[in-house]
Amino acid sequence: MATRRIVEIGDEKLRKHAKKVEKFDLRLRILLKDMADTMYKADGVGLAAPQVGILKRAVVVDVGEGLIELVNPEIVAAEGEQTGPEGCLSVPGRSGIVVRPERVTVRAQNAQGEPIEVTGEGFLARAFCHEIDHLDGVLYVDKMVREIFPDEEAEEDGEAETDGEEEGQ
Ligand code: NI
After folding, report:
1. φ and ψ at 4, to 5 degrees?
2. Separation of 138 CA from ligand 1 center, angstroms?
3. pLDDT band at 168 (very low <50, low <70, confident <90, very high)
4. How remote is the CA of residue 155 from the centroid of ligand 1, in Å?
5. What residue segments make up the domains of the chain, in order of their start?
6. So which residues are the catalytic ones?
């Protein structure tokens, strides 16, 4: 297991446009493996290559349904709308309310360069949107409707928050 340092908000690498992956080689496979290790160690549900300082279009996502590796991902269809909490491993200690599509279809390549298409709903759709935004230098804080304050969750009995803190992506 090899983990990499997660770069945090304020680092210009998070604001750059990541480059398309052209070579599906050992270096890419190691990057994807390290990204997954880094995500799991940080208890995150997604991680994009720019978050470990690598400006390549590669992301990993695992919302509890297994690891998904996406290289050169693009959202090709989106429908519906969901409004909910979101956090980011590069924005530690904070979370906010973000509006995302309810369902998205992503076209990408796998680690071998083969074309894949995945559809996600609910939290998985949110994770896909969040990670793909990272590849274009966009953070959830740019899109959030509002910040969630730490003392707020205790006050809001009505809102479905079971585990207290938002999972980072
Ligand atoms: Ni993030």
Report:
1. -120, 160
2. 9
3. confident
4. 26
5. 12-167
6. 131
